[in-house]
């Protein structure tokens, strides 16, 4: 039986009304454009015949009630259904404080956008006949009150029950933290591991058992498509970080049971106060990159001496913006060989050694009949 639908993904909005903007000299987020960039995307998406929109977390700058209220009202005006999950910035504290809402309050703000039962911070919803969305919560507070990326046992058990009952449905999973590695050795990397689910392997085993192939994530602020044993993790960059991307996707299943997903990526090129947003944003990121690059070079696995890292870092000022843009191809032939090879591993190169440019615009064949 054929199946065709179109949807969009906009991730890591970090919405910040002007009076809530928190400034810091080293932040990568250009939250000043959050409202105008989102409005620009909405203007485009409302011209399309979308079946639904997914927002995989970090909806707000830092969980401010005013920002959640603004977004809730704006989403209610859209002509297509919208589904959200919380990111770490949406629920940064377990109990409400002067800045942020309480963790348990998040579903009450978004009862029209997936959370039909606001007493539970994860949900499932039938998007279309034969198509089911599972929205997971990857924000976990340990005994010390620290927020980490993890799915608790109760949620994993619930997930198994939902998947066992969805045998005849196409299942899409949305969760904020990454499930498949998007940068080299991400689960072990001292910088990258906090963007991964701590128990990603447990989730992957469940998804493989029930033949779930599509997971949509955010958090890392890069355009990347990664695959682990037929499970695709499609992560979408942040709307407030270079290159200010969003995606439009089309799923197709023909009468022979062949399934494929077409991915097209777009960028917000300009907004009223930032007419050359792409250039300015790339420069903004590069100007703030030095501390990050020194940390990257001095920590595992390179462990370079601090002096050498400081010498190399300026040449890498556009390293992260190139990664964030997706389909990166990088080479620094004048670097020491070990460092050169390591930087190359961040590129869109398949194990065969050939470029594999699937991060932005591609068609994924999901099964082979």
TrEMBL record:
Keyword Repeat carried by entry: no
Family: Belongs to the cyclic nucleotide phosphodiesterase class-III family.
SUPFAM superfamilies, alphabetized: Metallo-dependent phosphatases
Protein name per the record: Metallophosphoesterase
The keyword Methyltransferase belongs to this UniProt entry's keyword annotation: no
InterPro entries per the UniProt record, alphabetical: Calcineurin-like_PHP, CNP_phosphodiesterase-III, Metallo-depent_PP-like, Pesterase_cyn
Keyword list, A-Z: Hydrolase, Iron, Metal-binding
GO molecular function terms noted in the UniProt entry: hydrolase activity; metal ion binding
Domain Calcineurin-like phosphoesterase: 5-222
């Amino acid at each position: 039986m054929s199946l065709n639908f179109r949807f969009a993904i906009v991730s890591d909005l970090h919405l910040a009304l002007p009076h809530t903007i928190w400034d810091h000299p080293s932040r990568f987020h250009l939250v000043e454009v959050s409202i105008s960039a989102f409005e620009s995307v909405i203007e485009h998406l409302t011209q399309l015949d979308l079946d639904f929109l997914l927002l995989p977390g970090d909806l707000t700058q830092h969980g401010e009630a005013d920002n959640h209220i603004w977004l809730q009202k704006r989403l209610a005006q859209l002509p297509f259904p919208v589904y959200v999950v919380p990111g770490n910035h949406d629920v940064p504290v377990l109990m409400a404080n002067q800045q942020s809402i309480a963790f348990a309050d998040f579903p009450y703000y978004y009862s029209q956008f997936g959370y039909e039962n606001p007493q539970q911070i994860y949900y499932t919803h039938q998007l279309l006949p034969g198509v089911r969305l599972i929205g997971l919560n990857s924000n976990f507070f340990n005994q010390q009150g620290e927020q980490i990326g993890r799915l608790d046992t109760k949620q994993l058990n619930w997930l198994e029950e939902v998947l066992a009952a969805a045998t005849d449905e196409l299942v899409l999973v949305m969760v904020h933290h990454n499930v498949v590695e998007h940068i080299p050795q991400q689960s072990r990397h001292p910088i990258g591991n906090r963007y991964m689910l701590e128990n990603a392997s447990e989730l992957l085993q469940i998804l493989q058992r029930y033949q779930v192939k599509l997971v949509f994530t955010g958090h890392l602020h890069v355009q990347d498509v990664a695959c682990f044993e037929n499970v695709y993790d499609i992560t979408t960059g942040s709307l407030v970080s270079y290159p200010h991307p969003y995606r439009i996707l089309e799923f197709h299943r023909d009468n022979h049971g062949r399934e494929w997903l077409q991915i097209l990526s777009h960028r917000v090129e300009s907004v009223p106060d930032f007419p050359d947003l792409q250039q300015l944003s790339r420069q903004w990121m590069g100007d703030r990159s030095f501390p990050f690059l020194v940390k990257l070079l001095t920590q595992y696995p390179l462990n370079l001496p601090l002096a050498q890292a400081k010498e190399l870092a300026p040449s890498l000022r556009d390293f992260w913006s190139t990664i964030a843009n997706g389909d990166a191809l990088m080479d620094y032939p004048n670097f020491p060989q070990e460092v050169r090879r390591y930087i190359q591993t961040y590129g869109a190169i398949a194990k065969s050694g050939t470029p594999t440019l699937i991060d932005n615009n591609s068609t994924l064949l999901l099964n082979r009949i």
